[in-house]
Amino acid sequence: MPMPEEMPENMLRLTAAFMEIGWLMPLVGFVEIVGGLLFIIRKYRALGAIVIFPVMVGILLTHIFNAPEGLLIAVVLLAVNLWVMYENREKYLPLIR
Fold this sequence. Notes:
mainly alpha
């Protein structure tokens, strides 16, 4: 995927560092696809929200520290994920008992 020309220097360095770990980006992509598909299917939405949550936290932290111009959409998507997790909280209770 080509890099945008207006990308900040620190984001370019971060992306290059991620690309040096050959298995990391395919793993993140796989988790995003599986989590997104689970999120779409109502029966498995709670599982999808848990699967995609660590990726969302990483996206939020990336935008906080490296690319604040994309922070609004990251916060909105994290809020949607947290809302779905809150709506399905009864399904998570057996995990913490």
